[in-house]
Amino acid sequence: DTGVSQDPRHKITKRGQNVTFRCDPISEHNRLYWYRQTLGQGPEFLTYFQNEAQLEKSRLLSDRFSAERPKGSFSTLEIQRTEQGDSAMYLCASSLFPGKRLGDTEAFFGQGTRLTVV
Amino acid sequence: QKEVEQDPGPLSVPEGAIVSLNCTYSNSAFQYFMWYRQYSRKGPELLMYTYSSGNKEDGRFTAQVDKSSKYISLFIRDSQPSDSATYLCAMRGSNYKLTFGKGTLLTVNP
After folding, report:
1. Which of A110, B74, B86, B87 could crosslink B103 through cysteines, CB 3.0-4.6 Å?
2. pLDDT tens digits for B3-23?
3. Given this model, what pLDDT does residue A1 score?
């Protein structure tokens, strides 16, 4: 198992452009999470999926943000009309629910996509 | 007041020192407590998880939870330069949504 994979690792975009990030979770994991981390802060929850259903969205997720997880496998996070305040590390994590072993239900993170809006 | 408070440091120690990292929290609904390690420009790596008050040991790492005081700690024994990273405490209730501290930047000097 290669862990949670995110693509791209780094994205530089001009203000007003749309961007899309992809996350491939650990293969047996049915829960998938998106978090955002800004410099000097801990990650903040954005949204999560169980299989293909989006079960919770944070108030941080404005209308310009949309996440999907078709077929309950990989997920995409799209940001429309990017703003400089969107510059951050976008982290994807996955977990298994219910777990088979102790600790399975905890989130395992990918390496993140660093977004810079210029 | 933030739900999770963590001193951001930075913390600098000599190799071999015992490191103590701490977080306090205010939400009584938090039941599960984690420590993540994050190297520069990388994603957080799950280091320890604890589901009850008391101590949990894994090699050089010990996680301690005191729910009555709403206080958690991570101790690193015989610290190594490779331990240099940001350490994030995280916690959750039953809904699997993690709330993180700001992270403490640790440098272990050879």
Report:
1. B86
2. 999 988 899 999 999 999 999
3. 54
Q: Tell me if chain B has a CB within 8 Å of the CB of A41.
A: yes
Question: Distance (Å) from the C-alpha of residue B71 to the closest C-alpha of chain A?
Answer: 18
Q: Measure B102 CA to nearest chain A CA, in Å.
A: 4
Give B49's contacts in chain A (Cβ within 8 Å): 103, 106
Q: Indicate the burial class of A74 (C-beta count within 10 angstroms; 0-12, 13-18, 19 or more).
A: middle
Using one digit for the tens of pLDDT, what is the confidence trace for A66-97? 999 998 899 999 999 999 999 999 999 999 98
Distance CA B13, CA B44 (A): 22
